[in-house]
Structures are given as C-alpha cells and as structure tokens.
Amino acid sequence: MNAGTPVFQRDVVRPILKWAGGKWRIAPKLARILGPQALEALWAPGGDARLVEPFAGSAALTCYVQPLRGLLADANTEIINLYSVCRDRLEALLGEIGQIAAEAESCLGEESFRRYYLDRRDEMNELISKAGDSTSEERTRRAALLLFLNRSCFNGLWRVNSRGEFNVPVGRPAANQPAAFLATTGPRLKRFSRLLQGIALLSGSYEDALKCVGSNDIVYLDPPYDAGDEGSFTSYTSQGFGWQDHQTLFLSVLKILETHPGIRVVVSNSDTERIRALYESRDAKEAGLRVHTIRAPRVIAAQGSRRNSISELVLTNIPPM
Ligand SMILES: C[S@@+](CC[C@H](N)C(=O)[O-])C[C@H]1O[C@@H](n2cnc3c(N)ncnc32)[C@H](O)[C@@H]1O
User: Fold this and answer.
1) What is the per-residue pLDDT for 6?
2) Is the CB of 250 under 6 A from ligand 1?
3) Range(s) for CATH 1.10.1020.10 in the chain?
4) Under 8 Å between Cβ of 61 and 187
5) Mean pLDDT throughout 291-317?
6) Which pairing describes strands 218-221 and 51-53: parallel, antiparallel, or unpaired?
7) Ligand 1 center from residue 22 Cα (angstroms)
8) Are 87 and 199 in contact (CB under 8 A)?
9) Which CATH architecture fits 7-75+204-316?
10) Are 30 and 314 in contact (CB under 8 A)?
11) Nearest residue to 101 via CA among 169, 175, 181, 18
12) 271 in ligand 1 pocket by Cβ < 6 Å?
C-alpha cells in the first residue's frame, strides 16, 4: 500500500464483523471531518500519528481510513481476540473457518442448522468461561466461532447476559449460508489482516486506551449510543453504558484535550438533548469542541431489521475545512 494514495484509490478493506452501531456507512463523512491533514499524518510512512479507536467494535473507521499505525481497543475481549488472531495467526483462523463452514453446509434444513448454531454458541460460552487461561488453539477457535456466530445470529448482534454469556438466537435462514460465508470471509480476513499489521490491540475499557494516547494521535471515540434515544442498543457488555458513563467519558475527553495539546479527538453519539447539553457547555467550548450534526442509517434493534435514517452528533476539536 502506498501511503500517499488517497483512500478511495486503495483496495477496500471492509469490516469483518457486522456490529450494532457500526460506522461503515458513515465512515466517508467521518473521514471528511478528520480532514486532509489528519489523514496525511496517518498515512505518512515515517510519522508517529496513530488512529486510536477505544470503542473499536467492527473498526469501521480504521478499515475505511487504513492508517499505517493505530490502536484498536474494546471492552469486549472476544473482538480483540479475533483481531489478534486475524493479525497473528491468519492461516490457522482460515483453517478453523473452513471446518465450521463445511460442517454447517452439511446441516440439512433450518432445524438442523439451528441446532448446529446452538451447539457452536454453547461451545463459545464454554471457551469464554475459561478464556483467562486459553491455549492459542482455543483462542483461534474462539475467533472462528465469533465470526460464524456473528454471521449467523439474529441481526449480527453481540448481546450477553449478566454472566457474560452470549445469548443471541439464530438469525433468519437467509443469514445462514455457510458457503457464501466462507467465500466472502476468507478474502476479507486477508485484507483486514494486512491492515492490522500496523495496529496495536488492547482488550479493556476506553479509559485504559486513553492512557496510551500521544499528542500526535487522532482519537475516535464511538461509545454505545446514549439511551436517551428510544430504542438504542447499549448492552454490548454485561456492564452496559449508562448516562453516568457518558458524563465520565465527556470529562475524559476534556482531560485528554488539556493534557495533550495538538491531539485530535472525534466523538460520535446520538442526537439527544443531554448529549448536546454536555458538548455545547462552556467547558466544551473552552476546550475547542464543536458539534456537527450528520444523518446516519440506523438499525432499530427492538424492531428486527427495520432501518431508518437518524440525526447523529459528531463532537470534535478539529476545525472545519
Ligand atoms: C457503537 S459500538 C462501536 C462501533 C464501531 N465504531 C464500529 O464502527 O463498529 C460501541 C463499542 O463499545 C464497546 N464498549 C462498551 N463499553 C465499553 C467501555 N467501557 N470501554 C471500551 N469499550 C466499550 C462495545 O463492546 C462496542 O463494541
């Protein structure tokens, strides 16, 4: 990849996960808000600017921008495990996926596939329960299972119960196409793996990730949407992400801006009165934060696959072009 090549002229790297709140469709708008200077810094071969995503999810912005250096972090250990295996053990991961796809392919009929899905979900939860001392083979298996479950479950959701067990039911039959899954996933994984070679990974809270940022970094914070917006999905982790978490995040943003002069920060959230009040406050203005409103497609989790377009906020200290 040539660092000077505009992103739209490079091979497209698509996210390997379908993720609630994923930003793939609005990534071009976010990249425009980052602006050409930030993008150049991320593509400069000898530079030290990184794209840091402390709420990585499917890492849509990293996929779209293709920075030479970055940090992806998430409180969901399984996402970071998948990215780590994809980066460092690609061949083993492809082997596991081939095996799962072949087994799924041999399930005759919907009921047989549903049982296969539930067995793989049980296997995943069993492996998660001993994740602390997993072997590298078990970590690879978890990564392959996450991809399979993500592709086959209802709406691509990752939802866990209070014990941290993944509990999403199987999706519509149309989602269960093992051959198509294998055909599209392999090439995507290879491109994503190449991109990940320059990316550090961290499993933990956004606060852990923010401890690692430098003044030349570009930080994109995409927390679970503020639930003030009816229908928002926030149960990615067993702890959830409530109003108090949004307030704490806002204070963390102010602190980062104060302690790292020159750092560029972008935050996404839903367009709710209380998020606007936080980021339009005097403290926010003094820190140089501005509020942009954009339109974004949104899946309403409670209503299955119904999609509509909704107003979202992008809060940033990057001046408009
Ligand atoms: C809206 S999604 C991010 C979507 C991502 N930008 C994308 O394009 O797919 C929010 C993510 O934050 C993660 N998360 C929730 N609470 C967190 C926390 N306290 N620290 C770090 N990550 C957290 C969730 O696991 C989820 O992946």
Assistant:
1) 47
2) no
3) 82-190
4) no
5) 78
6) parallel
7) 9
8) yes
9) 3-Layer(aba) Sandwich (3.40)
10) yes
11) 181
12) no
